[in-house]
């Protein structure tokens, strides 16, 4: 667990969902009955699912308080097939969606999500593409009548009583930035466990974040930036994050060759276990606030 030295606006999520009470978790341990062992999952766990949506990003989160959010939505309606695998098929509401940046492989599916689901809050940047999918997302967001928040470095979003989403980037007006560099970079924290989400940022911004925040970036799970492209995953950034798991969200046999070999080798040198949606499909992590494991 790391301290947070940023100062920014605070957002508390959960008011629209009623009073959420954290009851604590059951004790965790192995119960030995003869030669058979059972592992009892804690009652209060964080779920983070990296959805299989092909060549794109879509990350579903459910906090121990029951708050559900989606970071990005992949390139198309594939996200609508992936979501019922990790949340009840009849559930048609999300507390929040986060659009890291306005490229199709991140927001294309969010247009469909906004049509299908009721969304309380939308978090995005002020960066916009002059593309049909970006225009469709902006229109769908306006029609949803959700609360809109423009993310800024230093923002702290409270996801109920137990979980926090901290924004590290962008800092300042990002309207004219390269769309990838304008990606929202955020760290999800539950207890002593953190997840780092990076959108499609490049090496230069990763190096800036490592210089600026240092050990505060430390996270057990890293969503590898830009689908494992050689344009990202700087050495200094990996040294700051020190991820146990590195998640590549990419399509099978994608035309970009993601993840690039040099990125894989860099992650392996840092001792990270690499998991890829192209090979494994949807990848689900759970945490009790002290440990993190793959489901």
Could you explain how this protein is built, in words?
This protein has 295 residues and is α/β, with parallel strands linked by helices. The chain has a single domain, classed as Ribonuclease Z/Hydroxyacylglutathione hydrolase-like (Metallo-beta-lactamase, Chain A). Helices cover 21% and strands 28% of the residues. The protein has helices at residues 78-82, 104-116, 132-144, 203-213, 235-241, 261-269, 277-280, and strands spanning 10-13, 30-33, 36-39, 46-50, 59-62, 68-71, 93-98, 118-124, 147-150, 156-159, 163-169, 185-190, 193-197, 221-223, 245-248, 273-276, 283-287, 292-294. It has an eight-stranded mixed sheet. The chain has an eight-stranded mixed sheet with strand order 9-8-7-6-5-4-17-18, covered by helices on one side. Strands 2-3 form a two-stranded antiparallel sheet. Helix 2 packs parallel to helix 3 (132-144). The radius of gyration is 18 Å and the shape is globular. The chain starts with 9 loop residues before the first strand and ends with a strand. The model is unreliable at 15-35 (pLDDT under 50).
Cα Rg: 18 Å
Class per helix and strand makeup: alpha/beta
Number of helices: 7
Gross CATH architecture? 4-Layer Sandwich
Q: Terminal Cα separation, in Å?
A: 22 Å
Helical content (DSSP H or I, runs of 4+) = 10-25%
Element order: H for helix, E for strand: EEEEEEHEHEHEEEEEHEHEHEHEE
Form type: globular
What is the CATH topology classification name? Metallo-beta-lactamase, Chain A
State the domain count: 1
Number of DSSP E strands = 18
Mean pLDDT: 90
CATH class: Alpha Beta
Quote the beta fraction. Answer: 25-35%
CATH H level, superfamily name = Ribonuclease Z/Hydroxyacylglutathione hydrolase-like
- Major β-sheet annotation: 8 strands, mixed
Output the strand order for the largest sheet: 1-10-11-12-13-14-15-16
